Amino acid sequence: MCSAPGKPLPSAFEAFLAGFRAAWRSVLAYVLIGIYVGIAALAHDFDFGLSWMLLSTALVWAGPAQVILVSALGSGATAVETALAVSVSSARLLPMVISLLPLIRTPRTRHRELLLPAHLTAVSMWIEALRLLPGIPRDARMPFANGLGVSFMVAAQVGSLLGYYLAASLPPLLKAGLLFLTPMSFLISTTRNCRLLMDWLAFGFGIVLGPLLAAWQLGLDMIWTGIVGGSLAYGIHRLREALR
């Protein structure tokens, strides 16, 4: 979608449509459908309504956090406990938002215009945005990112509808397998997007530290994996640059 010299920039609507179409050319859209089939089946098993499922998908917009929401409320946890657990789970998205917004904003961007892409930033949208945005003219990047995010959310809603109505016929093992698509798709997509030594180091440290910290039951293992692994990778990268 890069504009050739002398070619006019795409309009905001054209950029939005380009992002919307790009999501369906990504395997992540179809992975999301599978994931949300599993989540909707879980919500059905806990007797949550379809409208509740669709609304929570749009508002929470994070598969693991939504699993926590459904299972916590379904097992009798209080609203405060559930909100805290969902918030802690969703904290992992904050670095993604921080890394994405500088790519899409311009000097003319108003702060309120960043609310929608910030909300739409999930693992799937973040991975594809980082891959595709460098080839998009800067003025078209925000509508493109919004189209990408909205398209992925449509895929999730399609999966929610399918899963809710198929819940009675899905075996438990298949439901669990569908939920497992989230970490596996993130793992494969992250590997594809690794370019620098720092990327590979962070990936490698995460692969090693994640299971170790989970097995040691230290608590907040995912957060500590990101902090320790990312810091080590960044430190080695800076040391390597300094020694050149």
What does this 3D model show about the protein?
There is one protein chain. The protein has 244 residues and is mostly helical. The chain contains 13 helices and no strands. The chain is globular. The mean pLDDT is 86.
Identify the notable features of this structure and list them briefly.
244 residues, mainly alpha, 2 domains
Summarize the structure.
This protein has 244 residues and is mainly α. It contains 13 helices and no strands. Helix 2 (27-45) packs parallel to helix 4, helix 2 (27-45) crosses helix 9 and helix 4 (63-74) runs antiparallel to helix 5.
Distance between the termini: 37 Å
Compressed to H and E, one letter per element, the order equals: HHHHHHHHHHHHH
Largest sheet: none
Round the mean pLDDT to the nearest integer and report it.
Answer: 86
Number of helices, where a helix is a run of at least 4 consecutive DSSP H or I residues = 13
The backbone outline, from C-alpha atoms, is globular
Helix content: over 70%
Radius of gyration: 19 Å
The share of residues in extended strands comes to under 5%
Query: Structural class from helices and strands?
Result: mainly alpha
Number of strands: 0
| Unreliably modeled segments | none
Total domains, how many?
2
Write the layout of secondary structure elements.
Elements: H1 12-24, H2 27-45, H3 50-60, H4 63-74, H5 79-90, H6 94-104, H7 115-120, H8 123-132, H9 138-166, H10 172-179, H11 181-193, H12 197-216, H13 221-243
Helix pairs in contact: 1-9, 2-4, 2-9, 2-10, 3-9, 4-5, 6-8, 8-9, 8-11, 12-13
